[in-house]
Amino acid sequence: NFFLVVFYMLIFEDLFSLIIPLFKITDELIALSAILFFIYNLYKNKWKYHKNKMTLYLFLFVMITLIGNLRYNYQPILLAVLPDLFLSLKFWLALYIGMFLFSKLNFDIYGKNIGFHIKLVTNIFILLFIVDLIFGGIFPGAIRYGFKSTQLFYEAHSIFVAICIFLLSLLTLVKKHVRFADMYIFILIMFIISTMRSKAFGAIVVYFFLYYLIILSNKYLNKKYLSCLIIL
Questions:
Q1: 4, 117, 120, 135: which is deepest, by most CB within 10 A?
Q2: Is 111:178 a contact under the CB 8 Å cutoff?
Q3: How far is residue 223's CA from residue 52's CA, in Å, rounded to a whole number?
Q4: Beta-bridge mates of residue 144
Q5: CB of 225 within 8 A of CB of 219?
Q6: 50 pLDDT tier (thresholds 50, 70, 90)
Q7: Count of CB atoms within 10 A of residue 119's CB?
């Protein structure tokens, strides 16, 4: 249930924020909760810290940021340094929460249910796309390569791309439990391409590379394949 709440809050954050502006900071609140989960895990382990490389690197990043700014007073700590520090850490904090959420999920048990919600959201996107196509001008979008780019109700094309990639990745994970999974994978790929953004095209190339490597070839992302991924 917690996973589904986060799932819908992130996907419809832009839409919800039009009604309740507080929803605009949903991703910040999720990232911030990583700190609370970290403290909770420390408490569960009787305040014994089990070090790993990720937390070590993040700790060094925070210390270097703070020491440099305390030494040179380049910008105000409270108004600029700490907010920027948090924004720089937000991606990694979100990964921490993602690891927590996914470690509790059994895809064999919940795969079908997760697939249902992915298809529901994709069907909503299809309906909105068709309505915009028929009536025109409901949602913003620029003309690129002779076509109107798809943005729907999102603030920026890149946000819509990120949401579709999230749905695409999750659907790939639960694919064997979902009817018509291949059809919905194709639809999500078409939505990503329809944004007409270079980063979207690049994301699709990376997706196919990882799909072939991990799903079809059943291999791991070692240094050789990681080098190929970096080049892509």
A1: 117
A2: yes
A3: 20
A4: 147
A5: yes
A6: low
A7: 19
Angle at 109 between CA 107 and CA 115, to 5 degrees: 60
| Gap between the Cα atoms of 84 and 82, Å rounded | 5
Q: Which amino acid is at 192?
A: I
DSSP the chain: -HHHHHHHHHHTHHHHHHH-GGGGGHHHHHHHHHHHHHHHHHHHTTT-----HHHHHHHHHHHHHHHHHHHH--S-IIIIIHHHHHHHHHHHHHHHHHHHHHHT--HHHHHHHHHHHHHHHHHHHHHHHHHHHHH-SSS---EETTEEPP-TTSSSHHHHHHHHHHHHHHHHHTGGGSTTHHHHHHHHHHHHHHT--HHHHHHHHHHHHHIIIIIIS-----HHHHHHHHH-
Rounded to an integer, what distance in angstroms lies between the CA atom of residue 107 and that of residue 23? 28
Residue 118 binned pLDDT confidence (cut-offs 50, 70, 90):
very high
Sign of CA dihedral 134, 140, 142, 145: negative
Q: Over the Cα atoms of the chain, what is R_g? A: 20
Under 8 Å CB-to-CB from 219, ≥6 apart: which residues? 213, 225
24: CB partners within 8 A, 6+ apart: 13, 17
pLDDT 10s digits, 207-217: 988 888 888 88
State phi, psi for 143 to the nearest 5 degrees. Answer: -85, 120
